[in-house]
TrEMBL record:
Residue ranges of domain Activator of Hsp90 ATPase homologue 1/2-like C-terminal in the record: 15-150
Protein name, UniProt field: Vanillate O-demethylase oxidoreductase VanB
Superkingdom field: Bacteria
CDD domains cross-referenced by the UniProt entry: SRPBCC_CalC_Aha1-like_5
InterPro entries cross-referenced by the UniProt entry: ASHA1/2-like_C (IPR013538), START-like_dom_sf (IPR023393)
Family classification: Belongs to the AHA1 family.
One of the record's GO molecular function terms: methyltransferase activity
One Pfam family it belongs to: AHSA1
GO terms under biological process: methylation
Origin species: Dyella choica
Keywords associated with the record: Methyltransferase, Transferase
Signal peptide residue numbers: none
């Protein structure tokens, strides 16, 4: 396994207490607001699926489906999903998933939020490179989104 192609890592220092960052991350409705997915009335519960329509312009026809892996209050949230599963005519359910892990830690000046998405080396070869490329830039954007969301709420 090549670590440079198997995982994406991003982090952002958010100038807010850990409890506030956790609320934006672990409350499904708040997560949906900054992430761009309609999760109104949804909850993140370990072991349970959670899904909602993407709200990002041009992608509204897509449904984001995750299975929540772990929820450790104010420390860690993780889920599994099919990365860059954007073709509504493709059944991705038989493909391996990637694991997305958000970790929070106190830092001087706020809360350090780290996201790691791993498992790309197991994605079918014909989709692997594009899924990695799109999510690589996507996580950069999402770290900016949660930072802005926390600052404005």
């Amino acid at each position: 396994m090549n670590s440079s192609t198997d995982r994406i890592e991003r982090q952002v220092l958010i100038k807010a207490p850990r409890a506030k960052v956790w609320q934006a991350l672990a409350d499904a409705e708040s997560f949906g607001e900054w992430f761009g997915v309609a999760l109104k009335g949804k909850r993140f519960v370990a072991g349970e699926p959670c899904e909602g329509n993407i709200t990002y312009p041009g992608y509204e026809h897509l449904v984001m489906k995750v299975v929540v892996d772990r929820v450790e209050p104010e420390r860690l949230l993780s889920f599994r999903w099919h990365p860059y599963a954007i073709d509504p005519d493709v059944d991705y359910s038989q493909e391996p998933t990637t694991l997305v892990t958000f970790e929070l830690e106190e830092s001087s000046g706020g809360t350090l939020l780290r996201v790691v998405e791993s498992g790309f080396d197991r994605i079918p070869a014909h989709r692997r490179q594009e899924a990695f490329r799109m999510n690589n830039s996507g996580w950069e954007e999402q770290m900016n989104n949660i930072d802005a969301y926390v600052a404005s709420h």
